[in-house]
Write a sequence for this structure.
């Protein structure tokens, strides 16, 4: 008796699974809308990047929709959280492409999560674009040197950032001896560290010490005490704000006053709360955008953003997200179709797209060719920025 | 030499925190032979309680510490009553797995309510610095060490001089005999959880203030390292946990300071393996033979 009940339940469960499969693809949407997937880190340890990007994208989509949409069609964003986990990013991408019927996917914000969506994009032939995945290898070009057809990015790479920062340290900070404290648990930290070291050494500089840490570390006093005894001009921290903020605080507490240099991972408001505004002086980081510019397009964006988000100053991720929203809309408009293949061809042909983070031209390797800004912080506030163009 | 002393200061303040967490592990193990893996997460919740008290209620360091300890003690009792007591006569592996489940439950409940991002504490303790020759000492490091020492003295007093302490020692020696002598075993076990959790709560507040960064998964690594500290000192042995905590803190600091910062965590766990091979009962642990 009992066994047969269990069998019946099993049969019912299996049937219900099959029924579930049958429902797949019910979200076809209607002809007058364009569904675009947003696969972002809305929770988890880099939630700040994901949330900021999404704020920028949503602002762009709202503006586009208010102005009549793309060729008369409204954009419908389908936003799903990937929890800052690569595995989750893959399943979100699969869901967006197979069940939500999106024409393109935006995000995730970080390289590791973005890479996890690439196989899904290639398999389903749907373009994925990230505005902040800066890793050098394995993003738009696979390990065999073949361009991933459906993968694009609208930002520069870590190689460019590392080189830019090394040149900045030598030319603008007159540094000849550097200490590197890098996040060894991410490709981002290691990639930046490598490129910085290479350029810095080629220009005659010397790396006095190379220290490492892993994500979630909180105590850096031992490392910092160790380097305090060394003679150096600059500290380079290739890593994310969560640990970089704590390193800066603990370094300043130990009376290490040397300039601190970082990359776009510093670009989050949490850096200020973690490090303390008073410790963020003589800190420089490369960024995708600077709100200090005089460009009318930028000032207009800053005004509109403040109006929409309670007077908050837009961050680089906000600006990148905003550009990404227009970037995909521009491609869909030129493709004049919601066919992912045509959108892919239009993305590939993008030339001199004029955004608030600078002009974007999609190169042969699907990377964006654009300039970087090195921003200086004083008491936690951006006081100056230097624009560095690609060579 | 200066650098050595500076690293010593860094190591002691880090080790004090490990020692506070290790005490909870060792006390619970001593009394019901359970490795309470949820302990690191009680430490995390202690940090969040401290955060809420200082940020929203705008109270200072001492009230935050006390409120956090009291609430963590209550949480410890609840966890014991709900999750471990019904399993008291089950196999030890069942309780151990429940403890791991409890740990994940606490982590993800917190993540659901407070989000996964890091938060920073308001400035409740002076972060002034002072110098002894060339060594920098932070006021907060002094607070950490003083708080730890005071709590440990109180703990020693409770365990060795009070009636409930005597009951705790009796239960840990022989639960059934203690019950026959009229000791309320259940209450004693709850009390042990309360004290252990209160110490973890205190450690959470201290870490939150010192490092200025808390997140729902912050309990994992320190929890594991405190466990190593407890094993090193001899699990079940209270002075052993204090020494173990300090040794692990110093070990980590000197590995990062003089060796390679990348091998720091590896060194701690390699140390655990070495202890288990050479002296499985730990530094101060008694070598008891398992009766069959």
């Amino acid at each position: 008796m009992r066994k047969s009940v269990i069998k019946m339940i099993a049969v019912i469960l299996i049937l219900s699974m099959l029924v579930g499969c049958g429902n797949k693809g019910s979200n076809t949407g209607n002809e007058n809308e364009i569904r675009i997937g947003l696969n972002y880190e809305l929770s988890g340890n880099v939630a700040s990047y994901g949330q900021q990007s999404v704020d920028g994208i949503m602002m762009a989509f709202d503006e586009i929709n208010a102005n009549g949409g793309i060729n008369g069609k409204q954009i419908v964003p389908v936003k799903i959280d990937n929890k800052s986990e690569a595995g989750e990013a893959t399943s979100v991408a699969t869901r967006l492409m197979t069940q939500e019927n999106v024409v393109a996917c935006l995000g995730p914000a970080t390289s590791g999560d973005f890479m996890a969506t690439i196989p899904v994009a290639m398999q389903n032939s749907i373009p994925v674009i990230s505005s902040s995945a800066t890793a050098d290898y394995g993003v738009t070009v696979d390990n065999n040197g073949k361009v991933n057809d459906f993968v694009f990015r609208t930002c520069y790479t870590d190689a460019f950032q590392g080189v830019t920062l090394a040149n900045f340290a030598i030319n603008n900070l007159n540094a000849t001896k550097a200490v590197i404290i890098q996040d060894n648990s991410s490709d981002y930290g290691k990639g930046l560290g490598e490129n910085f070291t290479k350029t810095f050494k080629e220009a005659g500089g010397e790396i006095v010490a190379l220290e490492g840490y892993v994500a979630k570390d909180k105590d850096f006093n031992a490392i910092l005490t160790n380097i305090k005894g060394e003679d150096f001009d600059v500290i380079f921290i290739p890593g994310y704000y969560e640990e970089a903020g704590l390193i800066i605080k603990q370094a300043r507490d130990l009376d290490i006053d040397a300039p601190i240099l970082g990359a776009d991972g510093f670009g989050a408001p949490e850096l200020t709360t973690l490090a303390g505004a008073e410790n963020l002086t003589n800190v420089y980081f490369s960024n995708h955008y600077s709100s200090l510019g005089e460009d009318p397009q930028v000032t207009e964006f800053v005004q509109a953003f403040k109006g929409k988000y309670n007077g908050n100053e837009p961050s680089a991720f906000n600006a990148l997200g905003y550009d990404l929203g227009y970037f995909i809309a521009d491609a869909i408009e030129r493709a004049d179709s919601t066919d992912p293949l045509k959108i892919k061809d239009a993305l590939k042909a993008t030339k001199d797209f004029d955004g608030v983070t600078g002009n974007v031209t999609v190169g042969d390797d699907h990377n964006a060719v654009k300039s970087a800004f090195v921003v200086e912080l004083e008491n936690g506030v951006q006081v100056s920025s230097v624009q560095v163009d690609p060579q | 030499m200066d650098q050595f002393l500076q690293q010593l200061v860094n190591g002691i303040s880090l080790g004090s925190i490990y020692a506070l967490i290790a005490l909870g592990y060792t006390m619970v193990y001593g009394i019901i032979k359970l490795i309470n893996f949820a302990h690191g997460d009680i430490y995390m919740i202690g940090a969040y309680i401290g955060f809420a008290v200082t940020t929203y209620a705008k109270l200072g360091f001492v009230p935050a510490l006390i409120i956090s300890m009291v609430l963590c003690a209550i949480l410890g009792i609840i966890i014991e009553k709900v999750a471990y007591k019904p399993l008291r006569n089950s196999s030890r592996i069942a309780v151990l797995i429940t403890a791991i489940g409890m740990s994940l439950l606490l982590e993800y409940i917190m993540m659901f309510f407070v989000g996964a991002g890091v938060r920073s504490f308001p400035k409740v303790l002076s972060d002034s610095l002072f110098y002894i020759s060339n060594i920098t000492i932070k006021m907060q490091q002094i607070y950490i060490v003083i708080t730890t020492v005071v709590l440990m003295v109180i703990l020693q007093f409770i365990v060795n001089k009070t009636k409930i302490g005597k009951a705790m020692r009796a239960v840990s020696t022989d639960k059934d005999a203690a019950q026959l002598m009229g000791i309320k075993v259940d209450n004693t076990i709850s009390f042990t959880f309360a004290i252990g959790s209160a110490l973890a709560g205190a450690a959470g507040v201290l870490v939150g203030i010192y490092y200025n960064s808390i997140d729902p998964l912050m309990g994992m690594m320190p929890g594991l390292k405190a466990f190593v500290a407890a094993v090193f000192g001899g699990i079940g042995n209270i002075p052993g946990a204090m020494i173990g905590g300090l040794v692990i803190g110093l070990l980590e600091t000197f590995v990062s300071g003089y060796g390679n910062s990348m091998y720091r965590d590896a060194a701690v766990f390699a140390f655990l393996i070495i202890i288990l091979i050479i002296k499985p009962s730990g530094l101060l642990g008694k070598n008891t033979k398992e009766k069959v």
About this structure: Chain B has eleven helices and two strands.
